[in-house]
Amino acid sequence: MIEELRKLAELTTTTAPGPPARPREKGEPPKSNIMVVDDQPANLNLLEELLIQQGHAVRSFPRGRLALDAAARNPPDLILLDINMPEMNGFDVCTRLKADGKLASIPVLFLSALDQTNDKVHAFRSGGVDYITKPFQLEEVRARVETHLQLHRAREVERELLEKTLNGAVKALADLAHLTSPTLTERAGALRSMVVQIVAHLHLPDAWQYELAAMLCLIGCITLPPDVFEHAYVGEKPSAEELQMYRAHADIGYLLLSSIPRLENVAEMIRLQQMETANWANNDTAEQGARMLKTVQELDRRTLRGIPFQTACDQLRAASAKYPTKFLDALKDYSPSRIHFEVKRLSAAQLQPGMILQDAVVTEDGSLTVISKGTTLTVTLVERVQNFARTRGVRDPIQVRAPQGLYHESQRLRV
Does the pLDDT of residue 392 top 90, yes or no? Predict the structure, then answer.
């Protein structure tokens, strides 16, 4: 039987349309990395030979657990998966794959002798993208593998393009907010840092959504006077009017973002970030993101009041209904960055991104403030100062706080 199938494979690869199959030449990169999981050695050998002829790199495993361990170390581009296997069946293997954020996007094609409708439904519900019934035709396997690899590549390209586009758009929006309030930018950076660690620790899918939500969760506060934001955010005896103004920022942020395609979840996270409820749907991305924002903001507030970070985490554990323990556990080894600064007096030409203005930058005649005191300089802002210096002139030296090591001593302006 196996010999007949081999002959069929040779026939189909020579008569099928398209370029002829050929093994990869030495040093030539594979078209893709495919994993085959089947407890029958004959099936493994046959599929491996077919796929290698098509120029793919193939890894074969007789057990699902072995395949899961290998996938975690080196994720494949596609998996061909049998169902009836000892120790762990194919449905369980696929479910485990889809529960891992790093592996969930890998297309899984089931290969099985089970041909009942409920078996196929179970396969798709566990996360499979296709189902091929044994005994299979090798040409059909080849065609479906190529189709799903192309779809997978297209999705990955679209996802990467989307993330780059959105990150670029959001960075521009964040830069505008930075011009309005440097304090907001500093707090957004602290919140983002914590969220990145939580998402990585929990292996959450679509990590970019949580990160963007953290970067923009305070964007609605650009409507607030700086002192109102600082009083209300830190919680140092704000007035009732200040609290009312501050609490409106979540809805303002939602309105700013909700009309941007693909940012619906991010906008909803921001809208819900102040919600006081224990009735959260743990599997809902927007609600989980909102609880995350609420947690990191409260930690940030407490550290601003001088409470050590891990002490603040312990305090929030006592209110686990509001602040999920899994988020706090993910921050167990986290500590806010401690950057040492040096005060320097520089010309406009010597400014660099990352420096913080000790005083406002003003035009030479004093009639216009170019950038406010306390602003952290970005590439765009450095260019703005230098443009003003060339056209209208700015008062210098400009006093800044520079992270140690950012600016060499030899470059210091001598005054």
Answer: yes
The percent helix, strand, coil of the chain (3-state, each to 5) is: 55, 10, 35
Contact 181, 209 (CB under 8 A): no
* Residue 346 pLDDT greater than 50, yes or no: yes
- Tokens 């409507």 sit on residue: 223
Closest by Cα among 134, 131, 135 to 110: 131
Residue entry with tokens 């520079």: 402
| Residue 58 host element (H or E) | strand 57-61
- What CA–CA distance (Å, rounded) separates 409 from 78? 54
How does DSSP assign 340-406, residue by residue?
-EEEEEE-GGG--TT-EESS-EEBTTSS-EEE-TTPBP-HHHHHHHHHHHHHT-B-SSEEEEEETTS
Q: Kindly state the tokens that stand for 341.
A: 């600064």
> What pLDDT is recorded for position 239?
87
pLDDT at 409: 39
Domain positions in the chain: 2-154, 181-330, 341-411
User: Which CATH number applies to 341-411?
Assistant: 3.90.105
Q: What is the pTM of this model?
A: 0.55
Q: Which CATH fold would you assign to the domain 181-330?
A: Hypothetical protein af1432 (1.10.3210)
